[in-house]
Every structure is written in C-alpha cells, then in structure tokens.
Amino acid sequence: xxxxxxxxxxxxxxxxxxxxxxxxxxxxxxxxxxxxxxxxxxxxxxxxxxxxxxxxxxxxxxxxxxxxxxxxxxxxxxxxxxxxxxxxxxxxxxxxxxxxxxxxxxxxxxxxxxxxxxxxxxxxxxxxxxxxxxxxxxxxxxxxxxxxxxxxxxxxxxxxxxxxxxxxxxxxxxxxxxxxxxxxxxxxxxxxxxxxxxxxxxxxxxxxxxxxxxxxxxxxxxxxxxxxxxxxxxxxxxxxxxxxxxxxxxxxxxxxxxxxxxxxxxxxxxxxxxxxxxxxxxxxxxxxxxxxxxxxxxxxxxxxxxxxxxxxxxxxxxxxxxxxxxxxxxxxxxxxxxxxxxxxxxxxxxxxxxxxxxxxxxxxxxxxxxxxxxxxxxxxxxxxxxxxxxxxxxxxxxxx
Amino acid sequence: xxxxxxxxxxxxxxxxxxxxxxxxxxxxxxxxxxxxxxxxxxxxxxxxxxxxxxxxxxxxxxxxxxxxxxxxxxxxxxxxxxxxxxxxxxxxxxxxxxxxxxxxxxxxxxxxxxxxxxxxxxxxxxxxxxxxxxxxxxxxxxxxxxxxxxxxxxxxxxxxxxxxxxxxxxxxxxxxxxxxxxxxxxxxxxxxxxxxxxxxxxxxxxxxxxxxxxxxxxxxxxxxxxxxxxxxxxxxxxxxxxxxxxxxxxxxxxxxxxxxxxxxxxxxxxxxxxxxxxxxxxxxxxxxxxxxxxxxxxxxxxxxxxxxxxxxxxxxxxxxxxxxxxxxxxxxxxxxxxxxxxxxxxxxxxxxxxxxxxxxxxxxxxxxxxxxxxxxxxxxxxxxxxxxxxxxxxxxxxxxxxxxxxxxxxxxxxxxxxxxxxxxxxxxxxxxxxxxxxxxxxxxxxxxxxxxxxxxxxxxxxxxxxxxxxxxxxxxxxxxxxxxxxxxxxxxxxxxxxxxxxxxxxxxxxxxxxxxxxxxxxxxxxxxxxxxxxxxxxxxxxxxxxxxxxxxxxxxxxxxxxxxxxxxxxxxxxxxxxxxxxxxxxxxxxxxxxxxxxxxxxxxxxxxxxxxxxxxxxxxxxxxxxxxxxxxxxxxxxxxxxxxxxxxxxxxxxxxxxxxxxxxxxxxxxxxxxxxxxxxxxxxxxxxxxxxxxxxxxxxxxxxxxxxxxxxxxxxxxxxxxxxxxxxxxxxxxxxxxxxxxxxxxxxxxxxxxxxxxxxxxxxxxxxxxxxxxxxxxxxxxxxxxxxxxxxx
Lengths: 400, 793
What we know:
The complex is a heterodimer. By secondary structure, chain A is of the alpha+beta class. Chain A has 18 helices and nine strands. Chain A starts with a helix and ends with a helix. Helix content of chain B is 34%, strand content 25%. Chain B folds into five domains: 10-32 and 255-421, P-loop containing nucleotide triphosphate hydrolases (Rossmann fold); 38-248, 3-Layer(aba) Sandwich (Rossmann fold), CATH 3.40.50; 435-487; 498-561; 566-792, no CATH class. In chain B, α21 (647-668) crosses α23 (739-751). The chains are: A alpha+beta, B alpha/beta.
C-alpha cells in the first residue's frame, strides 16, 4: 500500500467521518494550470472578463472611478466629503483625501497564519470622484505584489476606515506582511473602525449591528442577489482549483458594496451622533459619545433636543449633566417628575439635594421616607434617615 | 555495635516494621548517603544574577549544574537526567537568566500540564524578586486573559506554556510572536519522559513545527530537556529534537541515606490470592510514622482516594478541633490559594502529614519530609522515583514505602526490587512518523508556513502526505509551494492526546448535568464505552447508559456498582507482512503488520475483591477494522502436541499467558494497558480464541464453518500483542526487541503469584469451579513461548 492509500485507510479506521476522495477531473486542470504559459493566458482572459488588468503573475487589479454624485442607497458619495459630518468621528480635522477605505475578502474567518487575503478592496476620495481599487489574487504567487500595490495606495493616506477592521482585517493584513517579510504600511496609520461606533449608537435599537442591517436601516440600501459572505472562500477556492470563474464578478461586487457602504456609513454615522433622532439612533448613546469626547455641551444639547423621547436612563443622564453644571432647577424638575412615578434613584437624588445643597432637612427626610417605602430597605437608606432625624432634631433645638 | 535507634527516627520506624511485619516486606533497597560535590560559579556569570543567587543563599553550584551551564552555553542541546530535588531547575534557569540579562535573549519553557507551569513561574519570580533582575516571566496558557496576551507576546522574556498551547495558540499565530521568535534562544522541555506513545509522537511533530517557524525567523534555539530516569533517555531526546544531545546524568546534589521498602499487604484468602487492601495498609503505615513524629507524605492514585485517606488519618490525628490540624490534603481541583497555604504549612513544618496526588510529584517546594508512602504503584518506575524523591532533603535519612494493590503490575513490581536498584527497564518510545499523527501535523505546519518542494520535515513520507492533502482539498500546490487553502484552523481539530479525529466524548448526566468528563480514542471506545460498561475515571465508577456511535458520544451516570466490566471481544488477526522473524523449537516469534477485525460481542461483570463473575451483557456494535503493527509468538503444532495431550487444554493456558504478557509489555514500554491489544488465534484469521460468556472454562476456537479449530492438523495457536491504534504507535518494534524479556517477566509474574489456580493479578479473572488449572496451563504455555531459554533451563 502506498503511504497515500494507507493514510486514507487508517483515517477511516481512526473514526474520520469525512470520506477521503478527490473530485473527478481535478488532475487535467492541475496540468493545465501548472504550465506557466497556459496560466498567463488564462489570467489575461480572466482579467479582461473582469475589466481589470493583470499586473503580475497571480494578481489582477480592477479599477473604477465613481463620481461623487453617485448614490449608494439614500446617500450620495459626496456626503463623505462634508467635513462637519466627519469631524465628530475623526475628532480632528482630516481632509477627505487623507482617508483610505479598506475591506478584505479572505479564505476564512479562522485567523492565524493560514488565512489568506485574496481580495483587497481600497477606496480613496480623489477630487470629484471615489477611486475604487480591487486587488485580486488568482493564486498564491501574486501575494507579494498585492501587498506592494496596497502599500503604494497608502501613500499620503493618514486615516484607515474599516468595518470590524480592528479585530479582523488589519491584524490579518499585518500577518500577511510579516509572512511576506515586507513592512506593514497600515501599522502606522490612524484607524477608524466603524463597527464599535455603530454598536454604540444602535445596539439598543437594532436586533444586530451587522453591515447588512446598517445598510437597510441607515443607508437605505438593499443588496440584490448578493453572494453571501459565507460562500466567498469556497467560490475563490473553486476558481483557483478548477478555474471556475463564474462567481468572481459576484465576489468583486460584494466587496465593492462593502466599500461603498463604508464610504457612506462614515457620514451617516457622524450624522447619527449629531442628530440621533433623525436616524433612529439612541440619543442617550449619542450623548455619552459626546460626553466621552469631552464635549459636555453637545451631550446636554443632544439630550435636551430629545427630551420628549427619553426613557428613565436618559432622563437621569440629563439630570446628572445638569447637576454637574449646577443647573439645579432643571435637574430637580427631572427628578421630581420621576419621583412622581416612585423612581427610587430620583427620590435618592432629591433626598441628597435637599440635605446637602438646600439643607432643607424636613424635605430631605420626606424623600428618604418615601424612598424607604418604595425601595428595598438598605442600610445606607436607614442611616440616612437616622442622620436626617438627628440633624432635624438639632436644627429644631437650635431654632427653638 | 550500632547505637540503638531513638524513637522518632526513620531508623527506629524501619526497625519496628522489620520486626513486626517481615512478611509484608518483599524487598528493601538502601541508597547510601552521598556528599555534595560543588563547582564554582562560572566566571562570566552576570553579577546581578550572582547577587540574586547569593540573596537566595546560593554561593556555588553543584557540579552537574556547572556541567549543564558549560554544555548549554557552548550551544549544545542538553539533556538533564538527575533525581528529583537535585536542583534541576537551576540548571536551566541559570543560563537562561544570564542570557536574558546580558543578551536580551528570550526563552520558552514547556511543561506537560498547566499546574506545573504555574509552580515554575512562582519559583522564577522569587529569584527575580530577590535580585531585582527585572526579568519578565509569564505563563501563557488557556487561562491567560485575552488582554494580557499581547503584552506577553511583546514583552515576555520567559514564556511558560504547554505543548497544547504551543500547538493551538502560538504556532498558528507565530507572526504575532515575531518579536519573541526573533530573539528565542532557549527552549526548555521539562518532564521529557511524559512525551511517549501518542502524546510523544504529537510532541515530536509540534517540535518539528516549532523548528520550522524558528528557522523562518532565523533563530536556532538550544534545547534543554529534563527527564526522569529511563532506559533510553538520550534516544528519546534525540527523537524529540532531531539532533545530538549532551546528556548530564551525574548529580552532584547531596543525598541522605534513603531506604525503600516494597510492601505487599498480607494475604487474606490464599486460594484466590486476595490480599488486604492497600488503603488499610497505607493508613496503618502513615499512622505509625506520624505518631513517631516523622513528617509524612502519602501519595494516592486518585483525588477520591486522597479524600478517603485524609478522612481516616484525620480521624486518628485531628479529633480535637481546637488544635491546629496535623493532616492536610493537597490535590488538583483545590483553589490555588488553598494549595499555597498547604505548601507554606509544609515548609514551616506545621503539618505532620500530607495526602496528595501527582500534584505534588514535582516542582513545588515542600521542605524536608521523612517518610513517603505510595498507596499503589504509580504506573511507571519513573513516576515512583519522582514521588519517592520528594522526601529526605537536607541530607537526613528517609524512608519510602511502596504499598502494592492487587493489580498485576503492582504485584510484579513489589516482588522485583531490582527494578529500583538496577538499570530502569522502562523504555519510552515514540514514533514521530506515525502516519496519521504526522499527516495531522503536516496540515498544521502548512497552515503556519507553506511547504516548499523538496523541504525536509520528518521522515520520508512528506511528499506523499502533501499530495494526499491536496487531493483532500486542504492544500494547493503552486509555483513549487504547498499552500494551506481551506477555511478551517487545523490545530483545533488535532488533539495531542489521541490519534486522528473521531474521538468519543464521555458525557456525565448524573443529576441532570451534561458535563463532558473525558475523551476516548475511537479505537478503544468499543472496548470501554459499550452500553452497560463501568467506565472508570480517576478510579471513580460511571456506568455507560447510552452510546451514540454516529454522534461519537457516550452518556454516563455515577454508579455505586460493586463490580467492574470487561469486554469480551472476538478478534481475528491476519498477518500481512513480516518485518522480522526468529524461530526456535517451540516458538516462532515475529514482528510485522497485521489486519484485524474486532467485534465486541458482550461483557462480563466481575465483582471487586472476590473476582466472581456476577453477570453478562450483550453488546451490539459494528465490527472494527484496524491495520496496525504487532508482535506475535506462535507455537508449532508438533511442539504443542508434546506439551499438551489434548490441544483444547492449551487454549486456556494461551489466554492466561497472553494476559500476563500484556501486563509485562505495558511495563517495559511505559504504556497504558489500553495502548496495547492482545489476541489469541491463528495467524491467518481462520480462527480465534475467546472467553466464553460463563468464564474461561470453554474457550471457543471455531472455524468460520463452526468446526473446532483444535481438530486442524496444523493447529498452531499464536499470542498477538498489537498497537491498539490505526497504523501502530511504535510500541511493537520495542516489544519485539524485548520479546524474550516479556515472556520471562510473564513467567515470573504468574509463577511467583501467591494464588493457587490463577487470579486477576497473574492470568486474569478465572472461575474457581471449572476444575481447570488455568495457572499451570499458562505456565506451560509460557515455557513454550520462552523457546530456547526454556529448553536450556
């Protein structure tokens, strides 16, 4: 028995559940692809069909320019160049020409050194157009060139924009550069990952924060006959192994849509934080976003604007901001409204306010008593009552 | 005249035992005291390190520590085989710390288990603190929090991990470890002797992958291996690192006089060979030692036994709750804080007796103890030494007692003290080119870095395996390189503890739970997980309620059953190829490739202690096929006729002989009993012998057409011992090399057993009322199998 046949037998005896067999017709294709001349001819054909060019063995580059008037769903690409929409997310003045949009298609989600980036999609805003560049591998030999091309595209770009790139694309790309012994040009760039921001704004409003959900709800874009992400690795494998090209356009289109969604998601997310009501974003989350950015004024303004729609958490948040700003009347108004519905936290805030700010002990005691009626009797509350009773007695004694 | 020993000394206890229970002591070995032999610090040793050692009270080295330094610093792969407590850790910590301080080197420490690695880091940190060395040593294992991992990868000087983590967590992500690999100078592999059999074959391949990744980063680390005593440590080390190693075996550490007693509990039922339980003897011995004021360490085989022994000893010594406890338990499963407390108490001498499992076998500093009692043979002589080595520091006399259970290996070992004072009979064997294991690691390696045409990796099979994996559609060959091209992460589906996929998981559903408590190899599942089987884990019994063959799951429930079960299997073997043969007048021995078909048809229930057969169950499982390697002994028809007037009498003897030989083969090969299979039959699969449902009274030897095989003119029964894994695991060549020794040891096992007609400690469970003298028959068969040796005698 040859080692190969032996291995097949032994695997079965060891309980392997997948039968070992090679598909029919594999070998003829392998012979064809292995002849270099045939491979080149084949790649040229594929490149032409995809309206790209074969840059080097194993790498096809597809370029496309879209005018900024082009609409992706409800959004024109030009929105990505309106600075006031970008500023909140980027936090510093950035010119649109400094942005680089990136999305990859890979041979799997497993990560690690065995996962290949076979399609690298890049988007750049250049003057009046968006330049899309898709670097597609037709095999492994083109990878070094792909990485070089990508490095060239980074020139002058300071800000990387991705969707889940912090966890997935960028570490994977770093691995590919390391394996190819090239310097990783992305490592030194600033990186804006839109997924965490999307989660911040919509996690409490949407069932999930996948890109497809964002497209439907935020961009007003619906993909027609998209190749599902899960089918993409297998489609590329089929191309490399058997030369089946019919799914390549669908892969490219999927990646292009990802890129266009990235470009339009950037301003629409900026707007969601500026005007959460309009986009259905969570105003509390938006306020927290501004607050974390150090813009207390914007946080208060956001909550004030959506005062009617705030739930208890939102109202407390707003009252908290008022208290910080010593706008006591506004804060007390919120607490009193909540206290009418026996909200324990509001009662506690009022008790504290009347005890420490107003030194109105009878009222402070009143709210503490109410608190003890509606909330679980904790030791802290009990102590507060005792302390207030004592203060009140002393106060009365002094007054009398 | 010797001064009479004072009470409270080891000598007094020894004298007492010799006077009161001489019948229990089947052997005694005394190792003389040895003075320390020192060597100076190497001149180039970093001054800060020298100061840190001084702060720890170390101002010079033992000579073997200096030898290790010289070899390691000269760039040799170095193997350390010195006893427990001889300062082995410093042998590698010294050069490693020096290189970190002076050359910004990095080091990887590999321990077989997580617990061990944590103890090691604790020791390193102590030295680090003492000298304010600023060396960063971290454990990196499954428990390491995600946010700490990045820091460890970037800044760890010493990364302490285990083979599983290297295999699944580090190598497949080596690019994230680039800074580490750029400067990796030392790889320390402690407990090397545990890398044998299946685990060893995996480890050898994980190390091949490590070397491959290292060469990608241009580093060539020096390997430092530490091992317990074996018959072949250098061979094993060479197989693991695939290079020459310098062996350092002569310890310069001082040793007090050490006496080792082999203790066989007294017989209570000589007919059946039933002895008093090891547990009761262990408790009695520990009570005696503790009451004489000796610090005592008791080793048990399972966590449950730790609790039982602790309970008995606490009843004796800790009855008064107002006084501090004198007896403590220490085992895995306790919280680290609890364990650290017990360790501290031990070092301070605040506790008189500790009951433990292998958790205290190594690493942990427990201070000076006087007496070590082993409740049962730990399974290997190497582990026995490691446990016995835990007592008798500080040059004081010490005592170790091995208390035998009624298991065959225990019984054999206590009757053979030469196992302890002569060269170790244990050979650790691994087959790094085991085809299934090798191909799994080729997959993992290809994921890590593409293979180049003509690249060397392991044995001769690489090109074929690569081609096979391409046909399997996980690799893609292009421009002279083999690339990983699949969505999966192969390391996740490769367990270092089993051969290939297809493992069964054992699921405990006691009290509504659904906990996975174990994994069982596909090959051994039919023998251990049939419905009705008593499945033993850590010596605790579970009963298999349901076996989902397709889903590879066995559902079990805790049981109080007073019996264990033994599968009755019908195994037909067919010899496919002879790799080596020898012939004598009464036996032909061979090693070769076999094809076997095994069916588990039923099982026996055997009551503990009395070994009565108390029931029988049917099993309905598909036949299993196995291509593997085997060693076998065949008795020619003529020789058999001379020894046995009626051939059918011989069959019972063959079964008993095979049982004893199986035990002894496991001993010399350091294998678990289930790593090997045994069968008695013809060598062409025409007939086989099995135990009948009612016992072994009427062995079946039927031809396919139902005729009795004994009627065949060329009736030549054969004993097979085979590697119980598809493709073999490298045990059978070793067994063939030592075929005479296996038969000789089996003769000793059976011949010296105290029972009358055979018992589970020699030839396996027998029925008492069959009238057959199975034991005599087994001995007669063994005499035939011994061949020339028997004829000469």
